[in-house]
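ingest -> fold -> write
write: protein_1
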Amino acid sequence: MGTLAKRKAGKEGTGSQPNIARGDLTDDEITLIIRELLGRLTQVQRSSLLYLFYPDNVMMTKRDGIRVYNLFRGCGQVDNLTIFLHSGGGDIATAYDIINLCRQYNKGKITVMVPQWGMSAATLVALGADDLVMSKIAKLGPLDPVTIHPKFGWIQVRAITDVPKVLEDELHRFKGGGGDLPPNEMMSLKCEAIIKPMAQQADPYLHAAYARTSEVAKIYGQKVFSAKRVSKERAAKCLEHLVTVYPIHGYELDAVEIRENPVFNGVVNVVTPSKEQEDHMMDLLMAFLVLDQKHRQSGEEPRAPLIDLLNPETIRKPIRKKPPPDRR
């Protein structure tokens, strides 16, 4: 568990590490540990810190963009910014708003730290960084958009727009074989028994509404990359790859793939974390996850995302236990 369950000695200001592994911690105790870890990460990065922690099944929404905007309005311009990002994605326009706000309110470098996942729309935030720090288990994902289906909730847009292609591929793959009847009759039977019922469930209005949604993802991506002075040609190649090439929305890209795939060259600088960065990043993630799990085990609904902006000049110093009184 990194440094959370052990002691570091010999370094000024480090002291005893908070033990998040204990199962009897209260919400307040976990929150204090999170606060201390945030302070340590801010000190290591020597920058302001925006953290975006999304529990499982909690997606980015328009409200989150407003929250980040209000945080920057209260804080003002920052010299350098680190974004701690843990998100499964959500509304891509919100992802664009967040990274765009970070760029507007930041005078220097933007570093995004991904301890575990920055999928879907969150990938746009990650790729908007100057430096991208990924742990050994960190994953980004394709940029093909998701949307809120009126019946099924959050779904991949391609689940709507690819219906005709899926049905056509299914029919061509069948080719009328596998039965005693002539191929043409077998094709007709399959069309009537399988393809037609599936096609009847497809909503043509939804299909038309989302037919060009993938182009929207590319436009947002071009804006983000343009702010980093990435050439239009390089940006277009990268975005085409992210939106159309990967076979499923849940495909995971690790640091090695982003480093070695030429479509990402010149788009983002993937940085291997130092031991200190890795420890603080993973310890903070674990603390957030423990807090979230505690609430889930008590039967509560998934909480809203945890979002805040910390300034290195104003953040509270790490909590230290007072030594016992000298009774001699």
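write: protein_2
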Amino acid sequence: MAVPVVNIVIETDTDFSRTFNLKKSDNTPLNLTNYTFDAHMRKHLYSSENRGVAFGATFGADPTLGALTITLDDTVSGFGSLTSGRYHYDVIIMNSNNNKKTKVITGQAKVNGTTGVTITKGYGDYH
């Protein structure tokens, strides 16, 4: 079965989150109870960088429903950590019962620059 291609957009200096609803070939949710994940992004598919940028990930409140959310917080997407441009990313899950790894999502991540706006919490002032 072909791996779904899902392109994403990440704004630097912001929190990023994307939820995928993983399904089996019969279109029922994939039970993620016994799975771990690995989600990484790098500048080029075959680049020499060691695994690139790692996403955080969480499963939904009920792992039997197949929801997987990948995240990057603003410290990872921030200035100097992640530059504007196109990247390749993959989401791989591993069954902890048999150690079988499966790529479940792949695609391009477009990273857009941000001007460096500073928000003062509590006052609503934008600098």
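write: annotation protein_2
The longest strand covers residues 101-112.
The CA atoms of residues 11 and 112 lie 5 Å apart.
pipeline exit 0
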